[in-house]
Amino acid sequence: MLYAHHVLLIGLTGGIGSGKSTVAALLEARGALIVDADAIAREVVEPGSPTLALLVERFGAEILGPDGALNRTALANIAFASSELRKELESITHPAIGEVFFKRLAEAPSDAVVVHDVPLLAESAGALARGYGAIVVVETPKELRLLRLDGRGIPRADAEARMAAQATDEERREIATHVIDNQGDHATLEYLVDGLWNDLLILRDENAALAAQAEELAP
């Protein structure tokens, strides 16, 4: 989808341990503008932020650590105890996240390819409703993902529990326009990302041309 001043928005997702962050870094090196959903979610609840103040007002000071920063585990223990509390949490955080997201889009150059890095894209109807011009799914076999996560110090049982809480490979493929198979070496991944980047540049130019034609025809 083209947003204001013809910015092309691309969704990027993948299960934990798939290598999604590596693909994001490779796309950024080729010229993409990365908008990291997790980074924005952390940014809007930094100490002193209005969003953090609202969270404390609703869920109590026990969600703060000794340094005044948000204790995410404490918040999760409270907010995810029921669907009603989770919805209250989302009603506070989602508007703030959306405001930063659209600000980043507005600040992007008119010819930018903006890649929205969203770990739980397939699980979020709200995110899917943004109308991405393409959705890239990074996919890696489960055992290789578990091996990578073990190397990051995440026990197998914890890693499997996190995987089980996320969408399946099949569910992610259903929303994908492009799938990156990340079970090879780094050189292979670089090659695949080169091909993806070329596709995204073509899509950007095609969409920009259509938008220009529409502007010419507008009364």
TrEMBL record:
Keywords tagged on the record: ATP-binding, Nucleotide-binding
Its GO biological process terms? coenzyme A biosynthetic process
InterPro entries in the cross-refs: Depp_CoAkinase, P-loop_NTPase
UniProt keyword Nucleotide-binding, yes or no:
yes
Name the Gene Ontology molecular function terms of this record: ATP binding; dephospho-CoA kinase activity
Keyword ATP-binding annotated = yes
The cross-references to HAMAP family, in alphabetical order and at most eight, read: Dephospho_CoA_kinase (MF_00376)
Q: What is the name of this protein?
A: Unannotated protein
Q: Which organism is it from?
A: freshwater metagenome
Q: List the top taxonomic levels of the source.
A: unclassified sequences, metagenomes, ecological metagenomes
